[in-house]
Design brief:
The strands form two sheets. A six-stranded mixed sheet has the order 3-4-2-1-12-11. Strands 5-6-7-8-10-9 form a six-stranded mixed sheet. It starts with a strand and ends with a strand. The mean pLDDT is 96. It is built from twelve helices and twelve strands. It has one domain: Endonuclease/exonuclease/phosphatase (Deoxyribonuclease I, Chain A). It comes from Corynebacterium heidelbergense. It holds the Pfam family Exo_endo_phos.
Amino acid sequence: MTFTVASINVNGIRAAVKKRSEENLGFLPWLDRTPADVVLMQEVRADEAQTQAALAPALDAGWHLVQAPAAAKGRAGVGILSRLPLRDVQIGFGHEDIAGHPGASAAAREFDGAGRYIEATVDLPGGDGGVGAVRVASLYLPSGSAKTAKQDEKYRFLDAFGPYLQARAAVGEPMIVGGDWNICHRRQDLKNWRTNRTKAGFLPDERAFMDSLLGVGLDGASQVGDVVDAGRAGNPGGSAGDFYGSVDYVPGDLAQARLAGGAAEEPGWVDVVRKLHPEAEGPYSWWTFRGQAFDTDAGWRIDLQVATRELAERARRAWVDRAEAYALRWSDHSPVMVEYGV
């Protein structure tokens, strides 16, 4: 049997479900026709009552919903829609001490009410390959903004989140963390990478974090600080360890340990779309609404499905469910889809 997961930043669920034109009927018709068994949503920007009202037709049709709204109204928020029941729901991460990473659990407490992480278990009926259940998580990693306090928040999140993911991979449970990661790991993930080397989402320390989690590409080398990255004059964003764009952030023990560890040599997590499309430019999942970015495909691949290694080996196909035209978009992101053989 197959198990298909979609990840989508809905850019506000109440806006996403609205009918925009006779041709663009919004999120709900997309949900009706999607092959996804689970939809991981980010940037829901609504409380539970508002989300349930927006998704009422889907819930009446049998979809199950769990949600982690942000304490700040109208901000962030993540949720999981599933055709199958969800159990053992967890909001936030790092609730237990993590061996080898003192301070990680305490650092994670800053984000408990931020509406940035939720996970749950889906039981799979009749799996013929030995996968009885899959843990699924929806992540909305802070976007950051270079030279503002938002970038400090992003670096603090990475400090706490990295050890949690490493610990989860070590458990050996089949798991998918899908969401808006707000980081382009490699140059092929970003159309205009040269002009974005000092912008949040493509800073050296953000990309080095992805190296520490996912390892490097098929060429076996990190792109952070390489000859191409630097160009003739050097990378204007510096190199790993500079934490370009921060204001008051001071890298502590967690950040220093990550830097010392470097890129993962035997990573426990796999970027599934990149695994199945190793040479592709993109496929991009986000395009600004401004200008002609969507029409010219000047996008960013910041929406990822990252799976534990054994589960990633079961991925059969992956694609971005890109709207056929700008006028048919109901979010500035497009769903990232992966079909797993379970």
